[in-house]
């Protein structure tokens, strides 16, 4: 039977280990897949950041080309100043208009009084207000022609404006793609000073609402992944901070969670096994106790009849008295055994009286070399008690103490109390117990004596803990000095 139990236990542990390995493997694969997703996302962001930088460089080049073109037009216009006063003015103006009309860049030429001369449809109007603001984004060109001061204003060409609009849209979509990513990566895009959040995704605003919270959050994210440095199309330096996905974080705990569940199940199974084993032992003890009480009943009845018969004869009165004492003892033992396995009735009885009865019986039947010392309060303390069983507890503890002293020493019994408990301390001057023995002294079947059954203290614990709702334990024990047992009963 033991081999079968060990085989079942070994099979269970083996299956649990296999399941743990498989779960750890699967969770590891999922973890690696999540990490690869995050890496691919981060690489894609870095590649797109480079593409944005290339686009920015392209648009800067276009802006320089337009500037150079405007400078070329200005130089052409300056050349008319060298033509001289005899030149055909109408031809020169027609040529200027041709240049302006062929130029894709919108421009305006004004005189010293800010009166528009070109284009012809605006000639005579003053350059001011919203129109001046519109054409003042770029630095104007100043030149002289035929002694008159002229100024050329220009703004971005339609092509450049359309490209700039595309770039701005690309910039917005770029930030949106960083923050609203498909792998649910928590991400923060901050400026170069790490004080301003440019964009965020998969995060609550409360997490970075204050500068302190932002700094703390960025520190936490940097511990998991190095930030991605990039340059936005508007030339601004930015950093992308990101951390692992919630699924990746959860997968880290799967093996630990499984180990915890396995440990709980193993603990519960062990306790269930011990409980079942203890119940089985209890059933055996109860059966043995009741059978013992039943077997003692017949000879006790017979002895009682013989005692009554002998009392009618002319014998020494002391003989019948001693026989009656032993009969009473046998009745007490039978009564005690009959109570095992069923809840005994508790009545308010004196603790000192019960302890004194047990000690009185033992003292007359123990070695004269054992000194009995008692310390009881002046007034007996009454608690819910079954005196038959409680006296049995005192006898078992005291017998163990006497055996530990090898019949020579001092047995001290002290009864005390406080507002909640009554304490019965039983101490001896025997050989004491090691810490290992102290842990097992109340286990059923455990005994330090060669012919001991290991039932006395086990039954004592059952009577005190289960029947009386109290506690019994080793209060003090040192090898070579002695042991003190304490019994606690609720008042």
In short:
The chain is of the alpha+beta class and 491 residues long. It contains twelve helices and 15 strands.
Describe the structure.
With 491 residues, this protein is of the alpha+beta class. Among the domains are: 253-320; 343-490, Histidine kinase-like ATPase, C-terminal domain (Heat Shock Protein 90, 2-Layer Sandwich), CATH 3.30.565.10. Helices cover 55% and strands 18% of the residues. The model has no long low-confidence stretch (mean pLDDT 76).
Cα end-to-end separation: 46 Å
- Helix-strand makeup class: alpha+beta
What is the assembly state of the chains in this entry? Answer: single chain
The whole-number mean of residue pLDDT values reads 76
In what order do the strands lie side by side in the largest sheet? 10-12-13-15-14
* Named CATH architecture of the domain at 343-490: 2-Layer Sandwich
**Could you give me the name of the CATH homologous superfamily of the domain at 343-490?**
Histidine kinase-like ATPase, C-terminal domain
Cα-atom Rg, whole angstroms?
52 Å
User: How many extended strands?
Assistant: 15
Low-confidence stretches: none
Our count of helices gives: 12
CATH class of the domain at 343-490: Alpha Beta
What is the approximate shape? rod-shaped
Indicate the percent of residues in helices. 55-70%
Largest sheet: number of strands, sense, barrel closure: 5 strands, mixed
Strand content: 15-25%
CATH fold group of the domain at 343-490: Heat Shock Protein 90
SSE ordering: HHEEHEEHEEHEEHHHEHEEHEEHHEE
